[in-house]
Amino acid sequence: MGLKRLSPETTARPDERGRITLGSELTKGVSRYDVYVDSETGEVLLKPYKEIPAIEAWLYENKTAQDLVAKGLEAARNNKLSKKKFKSESWINDVEDSE
What we know:
Elements: H1 24-27, E1 32-37, E2 44-49, H2 57-61, H3 63-77, H4 90-97
């Protein structure tokens, strides 16, 4: 695995059942961890994951929608927003049609 040599963030001791708690700062917003163990050194690497609600997954599955969001965020960063009137929900049909 070859973990980088870092300074410890904190120390932890296993309880009587072998559990180690990470604390709220290290687990804030994390829904799960993948656990990697180096069989030679015994070093453990926890890779945190944040999961999204299923109702929001469409954005990550739709390249056109991602591009539109990125374009909008870039315009906002550059203070280049403009007011546009949308015809009801026609814009969402364009995004859904590109799936």
